[in-house]
């Protein structure tokens, strides 16, 4: 990780209001500062480790893109301001200028394109369920009469609402502030099912006190693409970010980072998610694109 931070000065920053920037690259060049949004508990994408350092697959990709930005602006170093974001406030903080670039576990879809811009995709996930081992819930058809927890402000929440409406199933939706809180709801038996992106569920399971107590089940409710967020209307900044990410993917560096975070022991509990890359993700690495999947 130390090599990733070479040439950067880290400054912790609490979320605060900021003016909309029409030219992000110009502002970065003038101030020597870039504001990066990160998640606090999106294992293994962007989260705090046991030393309260921000780590993860998406975080490393974002730090590598800074090299492309520095080269574009001919800057030897950048001051890096880290801004923690949640599912509920991440788009607003990008829109109002508090955050220049957010790379975490944010789904790129057509609805969100109306509010923010997205980079080329960095990951592909499927919405699935986590339950206690031995639970009678095996698939979506088993949700009737159950309590299902989701993180507020996520596409999982919207997908679950649509599923309840279309299936006419009678089940209760419990909203949680973040992924860790949602798992605590599941762990305390206030809900029987936790719906979320499969990679995040495996990350939550891996850092739990007893990973063997939990399993990810069911057919996928949807397939989605993750991407980094930026403000709309700034084509120059998007081109630089896309170029940096595409180079990482096509050079094999993104796959190396994937293997570090999904196929080797990771903090804080040094457990291995043991998730081989899907063919769809490998194709994305070969041919980066910025099209949403839904």
TrEMBL record:
Q: Which GO terms describe its cellular component?
A: extracellular region; outer membrane-bounded periplasmic space
What is an annotated GO biological process for this record, any one?
Answer: amino acid transport
Keywords noted in UniProt: Signal, Transport
Q: Does the keyword Isomerase apply?
A: no
Gene3D superfamilies, from UniProt? Periplasmic binding protein-like II
Domain Solute-binding protein family 3/N-terminal span(s) in chain numbering: 33-265
Presence of the UniProt keyword RNA-binding in the record: no
Classify the source by domain of life.
Answer: Bacteria
Q: Which InterPro entries match?
A: Bact_solute-bind_prot3, Solute-binding_3/MltF_N
Give the signal sequence positions. 1-19
By sequence similarity, the record places it as follows: Belongs to the bacterial solute-binding protein 3 family.
PANTHER family under this entry? AMINO ACID ABC TRANSPORTER PERMEASE, GLUTAMATE_ASPARTATE IMPORT SOLUTE-BINDING PROTEIN
Task: State the protein's name.
Answer: Transporter substrate-binding domain-containing protein
């Amino acid at each position: 990780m130390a090599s990733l931070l070479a040439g950067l000065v880290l400054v912790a920053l609490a979320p605060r209001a900021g003016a909309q920037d029409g030219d992000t690259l110009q502002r970065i060049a003038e101030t020597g500062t870039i504001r990066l949004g990160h998640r606090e508990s999106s294992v293994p994408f962007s989260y705090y480790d046991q030393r309260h350092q921000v780590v993860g697959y998406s975080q490393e990709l974002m730090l590598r893109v800074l090299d492309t930005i520095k080269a574009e602006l001919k800057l030897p170093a950048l001051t890096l301001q880290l801004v923690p974001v949640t599912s509920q406030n991440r788009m607003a903080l990008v829109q109002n200028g508090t955050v220049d670039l957010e790379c975490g576990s944010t789904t790129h879809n057509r609805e969100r394109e109306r509010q923010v811009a997205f980079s080329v995709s960095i990951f592909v996930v499927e919405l699935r369920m986590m339950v206690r081992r031995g639970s009678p819930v095996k698939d979506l058809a088993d949700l009737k009469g159950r309590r299902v927890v989701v993180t507020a402000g996520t596409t999982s929440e919207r997908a679950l609402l649509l599923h309840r409406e279309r299936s006419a199933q009678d089940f209760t939706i419990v909203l949680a502030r973040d992924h860790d809180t949602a798992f605590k709801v599941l762990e305390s038996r206030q809900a029987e099912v936790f719906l979320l992106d499969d990679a995040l569920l495996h990350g939550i399971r891996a850092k739990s006190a007893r990973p063997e107590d939990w399993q990810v089940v069911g057919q996928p409710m949807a397939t989605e693409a993750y991407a980094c967020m930026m403000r709309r209307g700034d084509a120059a900044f998007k081109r630089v970010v896309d170029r940096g990410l595409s180079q990482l993917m096509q050079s094999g560096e993104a796959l190396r980072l994937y293997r570090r975070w999904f196929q080797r022991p990771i903090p804080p509990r040094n457990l291995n998610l043991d998730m081989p890359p899907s063919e769809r993700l490998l194709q994305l690495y070969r041919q980066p694109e910025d099209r949403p999947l839904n």
